[in-house]
Amino acid sequence: MSTSRNHQRSGPVISTASLPDIVFMLLFFFMTVTTINNSELLVENDLPKATAVNKLDKKDRIIEIYVGTPKKNMEKALGTGTRIQLNDRIAHLNDIVPYVLGELAKKPEAVRNFVTVSMKVDKSVKVGVVSDIKKELQKAHLFKVNYTTYQSNDPNMGF
């Protein structure tokens, strides 16, 4: 004799009463640890293209320097020559060392030796300006420099 039973087995009911608490805890956590970069670009920043690029993953280990000509709405105040932007202000070459040392001091001590200076240089900027900035970075003993670019899929670009 074979009896066929059609049982619908269901597992235990999972309580979702604590789900809103968990969601709000996660939301609060991410709101407190996330930093927002409020810097407005004052200089043109049309980056060059490159075929071989690497991504900088750890944003907490980066100090950014923007280099380019002032945007159209800033030309009256800043002129048309190449300018250096540090955070949200236009700076001179002699401002770079104090700036990077100040930014370095804000970083946790454990990551200070791994900090990279990311130079976001407009493609129309002359190499001499970049060379001068690198000399200033050497004075601050910051030798890890990254040049930010866009990735190009053109295999004929070749360097």
Number of extended strands: 7
Helix content range of the residues, please?
25-40%
Widest sheet: strand ordering: 4-3-2-5-6
Oligomer: single chain
Structural class: alpha/beta
Number of helices: 4
The CA-CA distance between the termini, in Å, is 82 Å
Low-confidence stretches: none
Mean residue pLDDT: 86
Order of helices and strands: HEEHEEHEHEE
Strand content: 15-25%
Describe it.
The strands form two sheets. A five-stranded mixed sheet has the order 4-3-2-5-6. The chain has a two-stranded parallel ribbon with strand order 1-7. The protein has helices at 19-33, 75-78, 96-106, 127-139, and strands at residues 49-50, 62-68, 83-86, 89-91, 116-121, 145-147, 150-151. The protein contains four helices and seven strands; from the N terminus they run αββαββαβαββ. It starts with 18 loop residues before the first helix and ends in an 8-residue tail after the last strand. It is of the alpha/beta class and 159 residues long.
Key traits:
single chain; five-stranded mixed β-sheet; two-stranded parallel sheet; 7 strands; elongated
Describe the structure concisely for a colleague.
With 159 residues, the chain is α/β, with parallel strands linked by helices. It has 4 helices and 7 strands; from the N terminus they run αββαββαβαββ.
